[in-house]
Amino acid sequence: MTPPLASFCRWAKDNGVVSRLIPKDSKGMGVGLFFKADLPDNNSSHNLDQGELLFVPQTLLLSRSRVLAFQCPHLQKSFSIVGLANVSERLAIILFILSQRLVLENSSQQQHSTPNASDHATPNNNSCNEPTGALFQDYIATLPDVSTPVTLDPELVRGYLAGTLLLDSVCAKRSKIEAEFEHLSGNLGAFEDWSVRPTLDNFIWADATFWSRVLSFKTQWTENDASSNSDDSDDMHMVPYLDFANHAANPNIRWEVDSDGLRVWGQESLLQDSNDDSVEREVFLSYGSKPNTELLFLYGFTLRDNPTQSLTFAMPMDENDPYYMPKAHSLMRWGIPPRITIYLKKTDGPDDLEEFCPGMWITQQSRHLLWLYALNEDDGLGALIEEPEAKICLPDESTEDGNEEDALEEADLVDEDVVGRLVLTINNAKVDTHETLESIVPHLDIFPVIKLRALVLVADRVEHYITRIMETGDRVQKTEDIEIVRAVHYDTDGHTINGVPLPDLVDAPLASRLNRDIGDCLVPTILEPDHTEPITSRQLEAEAQVSNLVTMMRNYRAEEMSLLVDMSNSLGQAQTHCLEESEFIQSYLARMQLQDS
Prior knowledge:
This is SET domain-containing protein. This protein is α+β, with helices and mostly antiparallel strands. 46% of the residues lie in helices and 13% in strands. Helix 6 crosses helix 19 (473-484), helix 13 (364-374) packs across helix 18 and helix 18 packs antiparallel against helix 22 (537-581). The radius of gyration is 29 Å and the shape is elongated. The protein starts with a helix and ends with a helix.
């Protein structure tokens, strides 16, 4: 057990955590939690119930309200600058863990630069003592570097995820977080009072750490729990100890929250899995039924043979559509974004999933989006400007001088309640809600054709992404040859590490390099192209993370391509079936062909 992890376990016990689980290395998956049937709990002053494996007291559940209560001057100043109303649960927690980590790293550097410094020196910083947040420093010290596509160098990601749907999400997330950091650090100056100011990489780490570890407590609440909760905005929590648990599609533990804290229970499959009480078994949580796209995006890993498979497509509207504006306005009012998610199993999505074609399901929202995209004027589609409920009031002098038109041009014409709304109509019936759309479209004579058009729309989008991946294959190869496999040459001056000449260690595979007890030394790494500074063991661990992530990204790209091809085949078969089985579609297409000729 590493010193930070050992310190964390002592801290957890001292602060009321009761556990029959041991945190330890989990075969390339970072730290995991392990259970032994004969292992007593770590705290003799408390007793766990039958089947209970872990108790984390309320005082150690890290949430927005907890962070805001810390008497921590530099954080309070940051929150004041941002404005409490703008401090979300996420922002409160990431600024807290970020500030604490910077303090710890700065303290560690000062100790290394001062030979006589005490091994247990208290950081000289603005974080003060509990109840200011210093209580959590042993926990913060265990938080590892996180490696996800969002945290990597953007050019590296563009190479390995070239053409994929995931790349779009990663680039959008990266741009958003860069803009947020620039706003906080540059525009607002929210870090001016911090003893150590964060960099963009620090901020990205805190964001990735939050999303990879946070638990949503509202998923555990009943309506009574939510109504009686004094601060029902506290949904997102980081939970020390439990957040070491890794993910599995079939978890063997479950958790629940009560007024005292959080409790973890073992499933029967874990408790009765082995007759040998001395055998350690890793315990797993479920992060939810997530496809590999989401797992790789949020956590930096994928599951082999993941039972959950889905893809989310951007579905931009044709701007040349004569009804582009009223369609766009309707979708915005109904809260329907221009994208759809296709699920390959009905059980993998929300309750309102409906079969789109054999083997593919979509939500009701997605179906309404496709209907609107598919409808045109020949189907009876129209639009009108609905009269506003309130008229614009013009000053008396403007009408007296005959300047009514000028005054109207200067009025605020954004509010639909004032200037009227663009509303779609179908056969002269106003379609002002998606419920109305649902009640009209399926009863249209043209409905079989609309379904066929929806299939064509999605098939075209799938083909677009297949083509994009195929056309960017050379970028993946270039990344593989140049960015990852770097030929690094430097003068070793005859140095050895544990008797092993540096050139031998340099040429050794990554796994063998990492298995050697080398400490801080000059060793080639994919993260440090110049090697002007010694490479630390922490950097080597980061190299291993990046190498694993690179492999997962390459495999994910192949997996996405395979899914897209399968979807394309299913959509093609569905279109053929529609054409062959529907006499209405055949006669409709014949009439259209006659009109065109």
